[in-house]
Each structure stands twice: as C-alpha cells, then as structure tokens.
Amino acid sequence: MTSAATTSGADTSAVLPASVDAMLELLTSRGYLAERSLATVTYLSLRMGRPLFLEGEAGVGKTEIAKVLSAALGRKLIRLQCYEGLDVSSAVYEWNSAAQMIAIRMAEAAGDTDRDQLSSDIFADRYMIKRPLLQALEPDVAGPPVLLIDELDRADEAFEAYLLEILSDFQVTIPEFGTVKAPHPPIVIITSNRTREIHDALKRRCLYHWVDYPAAERELAIVKSRVPGISAKLSQQVVRFVQALRNQDFYKSPGVAETIDWATALSELDARSLTPQVVGDTLGALLKYQDDITRMQGDTLQKVLKEATSEN
Amino acid sequence: MAINHLAPEQTEQFADNIVGFARALRAAGMPVGPGAVIDAMSALQVIDIGNRADVFTTLEAIFVKRHEHALIFKQAFNLFFRASEEWKHMLDSVPLPDEAKKKPQAGSRRVQEAMSQPRMTETPQHQEQDLRLSVSDREILQKKDFAQMSAAEIAEALRAVERMRLPQAELLTRRQRPDARGLRLDLRRTLRASLRTGGDIVDIHRLGRIEKPAPIVALLDISGSMSEYTRLFLHFLHAVGDARKRVSVFLFGTRLTNVTRALRQRDPDEALASCSASVEDWAGGTRISASLHNFNKLWARRVLSQGAIVLLISDGLEREADSKLAFEMDRLHRSCRRLIWLNPLLRFGGFEAKAQGIKMMLPHVDEFRPVHNLSSIQELITTLSRPLPPHHRNLIRSAA
C-alpha cells in the first residue's frame, strides 16, 4: 500500500500517514474528529491493505470517514450504494448493447464476415459500461481510489457472496473479456447499519470496527466545528440533551448527524438556550419515529431538559 | 516500538502470547481462526505495541467480527493482559486458561435410547394384525395433543415433524435469471447468440425474476405452560431451517434469546442441546410484553427487513398484561409482512379469548391458528405455502 502511494508520484496524492497519531491528525485536519480507536483501525486498514468494515447505528459518521479519507489523501472516491437486488450489471459492468448492435450492422454493411473478428471487436473496452466496482480496480493517477461500499446490509446475500471474491483478490472476471486485476488494491470502506447480519466469511476478510456514539466531550467538539455560529452555552446544552436522550429507551436514538442537524436548526432559529417551546418545535430534527416523539411529550421532556440545562 | 524491534526471543514470547490469547477467546466461545492470529501478528508490526489502547483496538478489529462479542473480548483482554500499571506484562509468559468445560455429547440421548431396552418396538407376534394397527395408530397420532402423548408417541411425532418440509412460499426478487417465458429482453445473451449467425438475431433470450422463499422469523414461548410443546416446535423449526436458509428463531420466557445460530447445526440433537445451553430461563415465567419490546428494539430491523413472515408461538398467558403489550404487538405487526400467532390453547373447542393478554394481542395478528398436534402443524405448512394476500401492507417490498 505504501509503495502505491509513493510510486504514483502525483502531486495530488498525499502520503499515507505513518502512525496512528498521524492518522488522527489527518482526519482532524479535515474536520473529522475521530475517536482514537477509529483512527487506529483506519490506519491499520491502510497499512495492511485490508478492507475496513464499519458497523454501527445510523448517523454516527461511518460514511463520512470514506469521504474524509478520499479528500485528505487526494484520492478519487468511488461510491457504491447498496440496495436489494443490486447485481453485477449495476455494480460491476454492463455491455452497451445498443452500440454493439450498431457495430454489428456497420460490419455487415461493410461486408465483414469474419465472426471471430466481429466478436472480439464488439466485446472491447469501449463498449463496456464500467460500474463502481470495476472503476475501483482501474489504476488512477492519484493512487488507488477510496471505494465506499455503503450500507451493505441492504444488498442481498447473493451480492455479498460476489463481493467476497473481489475483496480477497481485487479482481473481476468478465467472460467475454478476461480478468481485470487492480495493480494496487483500492482503499475499501464497507458500512452496515445492521438491518441484516453480514456473513462471517466477508467480515473475516476485513478489519471490523463498531462505531459508537461519541462521548459528550467529543460530540461537543464536533458540534462546534460543524456549526460554527453556535454559542458555547447552547452547544453544551444541545450535547447534554442528546446524550441524555440516548439513555432513554427510544426506538431510534439520535446519531451525531442528527445532533448536528438539530444544532444547526436551533442556531438558524436564533435560540439562546433550550426551552420546552423551542425543543418541542424542533424535536423532529432529532427523533424520527412518531412513537418516540409522542413519548417525549410531558414529563420525559421536562426531565431530560432539566438534566441538560442544569448546572451551567 | 513495533514488534519487529524486539529481541528474537521476546518476539517469540509475544507470538506465543497472541496464540494463547486467541485460544482463550476461542474457549470463551468466539470464533477465532488461525488466519486471525496471523493477521494479528502482521498488524502488530505496524503499530506501537507500547500503547495498550492501540493494541486493544488493533486486536479487537481483527478478533471481533460481531458487535455482541465486543464485551467478551474486552474482559478477556483485560484478564489476559493484566490491566496493571505496566504494559510490559505483554512480554511475560501468561498461563493459559483452563479448557472450556466439556459439553455433553450431542446425540447422547439417542444413543442411550438405542442401547436401552426398547419398549415399543418389541417384535410383534402377528405381523398382519400389527400393520393394520400401526396405520390407525398413525391416524390417532395425527390428532393427538402433544401434551397427552407418551414418550414413545412423542418420539414418533418428532420423526414426523422432522420429515416435514415447508414448500417454498415464493417472493419475487429484483434479481433476474434466464427465463424463456420472462418479460424482459436479455440483450446481452441475445447479442452473443447473434454472433454465432454473423449478426442475425435468430433467438431472442429473455429474463424473468428470481423467486425466493420469504424469510421466516419464529418467536417461541418457552415458559412452563408451554413446556410440552417447546421441544417439538424446536424440532419443527430446526427442520424448517434445514430446508431454507433464512429462518431466524428466538426463544422467550422472561427474556429473549436468539438461537438462530445454535439451531443451524445439522444434527437436531446437537442443535437443541446448544439451544438450551444458550437459554437461561427455560420453563420459567413469561414476560411477553418485555420480550416483544426487546425484539422490536434490538432485532426487528435486523431480521424483518426483507419482508419476513413472523410466527409467534405462545399461549398468550401473560400476567402483566397492560397497554404496553398491545403497543408492542402493534409495532411487531407493522414491521413484518405477515404475523401468524400459533396458540396451543386453541385446541379446546370452546376456546374464548378471555385472558387479558390474549385479548390485547388478538387485534394485531393476521392469523390465529391452533398448533397442538401433527395435523395442525401440517395445516400451518399449507398456510405458509399459500400465495400471500394481495392487500397486505409492505407486500413484496422487493418486487416493487
């Protein structure tokens, strides 16, 4: 991996960090305030050339880390959003059949009758539509790209099994074309929200990390860096409120993304501090289930609010 | 300081410790293969092994592949590499923990049964007569309540249950496969075929949707009042899971346990043994409401997201029935494709939903069926293989 970065020689490509601390610094420089453990596994995955499998609740910053990495390292970001029924033709490659048809007709018109020649002509590179996985295997001037396989749990098992092959050898076999192998493996980040268990065989090929909600202190720093105009008092109350919410028995606890949304909303509304009125009006930015919002009315709201606004 | 800067004998000691640690994790029930140990060694080449927290994260990323194991890992790590002031213990030799207790051999019951004097299988004196009897016996067996069966009859019923296979209740997926009667044109194959004739399209190839069985999630009540049925249902679920991949099984009494993995083992006895080993509240009380709450919160989004059919197997006798029960049932009902409640109490002819808990649960199920004898299980199988009612919400998510 290191050699890939150094030999590519392009100016846009930053050198891979040489220690966990350097990794932490790199992420921080791009506004991603990571826990040390996350920086450690990210660093390891770069050094060992292993895919990084990030699991955790929605909105804790799993996808974000791929974006930050690609920006910080100056690599291309290739994103594959998974969904049920995702198949080879939309994830890897597809033939441009219309163009191939025209090519055949043209050959006919020109009187070309050599079948072997024809078939090797129309199954050439230029009639191939490359989808994210194949793109990620291609050499790039800036160095191997960052391949983000987002929400793998949404794809079905068949696709997962297909991925197994790509992730261990970084190569794809195309029947009409041959094998495409990456000269340098891409940096792979896989995320999952756990709506389905991913098979152990796939996880075994990756470094696994559970991304948790951040501690209060870190979350406060994140809010401050992402919502620049917010007052110190409000940001503190926001973070305390959200942290208290996560201790409640909700169907879906708010993630960091929701905290940032909420802080932005409050800041837009020029709120100075949390009041029952303003919290009630903006709760939709934090909680996404009607049942959870209903439970927050009355006593629970008072209790959490008191917790968040006391001892200032 | 990375590991390759150590003296050779220290490196060796270090490697021994990692191997020992992996064995300890394995003894604690975590699936840790030899590949992971090699990975761990190569990972430790690139990080600073003087930093305990970094070593922890590194080993965790390699050995832990499921979030549930994180806690076990943490405890094992702290025990193994003592959390004391000096991290240099990492280089000390660490005693290996005792091997995990030997679990009872699977199939021991079957072996015992085979060895002991068989009562029911004595050689009959009049073959002719016996044949007739056994046919009618079987008929009686079909209708006989599981709770009233003798041990031998239960054994017979178990064999019958094991033979049962769910027909594949199909669900259209978005995936496609070659299908002569499919609706879509398979351009790629058509084109390839046309090359054989020099570009003339003779055969048109088509694609059709792939069908696959809908996932099944079973919630099985294992409280005392259900004890006569539990084993049989587990056998049934084991047989079902054998035939199709996507079956998740949860047991609940006072708490909820996911036994899907335990049930995956091929041998039914071994599967059932490891099931009961993972459950702490066998044949105790019931807390349906709390168990459903746990299921909804921790598992529903993980196992119901592919349009699953839920089988709730319970007698519904809940002492603490309150509005929460109705709420959780409603939530469960809304997050699955079909909710089928199987209740052994329904065997009584004049059954009326009088118990508070049952009254609260009933409005939220799509089907309410008896399940107390072989023929009712057979009927259940027929139900599951029927095409799905078209009006139902969330219908064929994947075929949209």
UniProtKB/TrEMBL annotation, chain A:
Pfam families: AAA_5. GO terms for molecular function: ATP binding; ATP hydrolysis activity. It comes from the Bacteria. Residues 48-226 form the AAA+ ATPase domain. SMART domains: AAA (SM00382). This is MoxR family ATPase.
From TrEMBL, chain B:
InterPro entries: UCP010256 (IPR011195), Uncharacterised_CoxE (IPR008912), VWF_A (IPR002035), vWFA_dom_sf (IPR036465). Residues 213-379 form the VWFA domain. It comes from Bradyrhizobium amphicarpaeae. It holds the Pfam family VWA_CoxE. Residues 97-131 are annotated as: Disordered. Residues 114-124 have a biased composition (Polar residues). This is VWA domain-containing protein. It comes from the Bacteria.
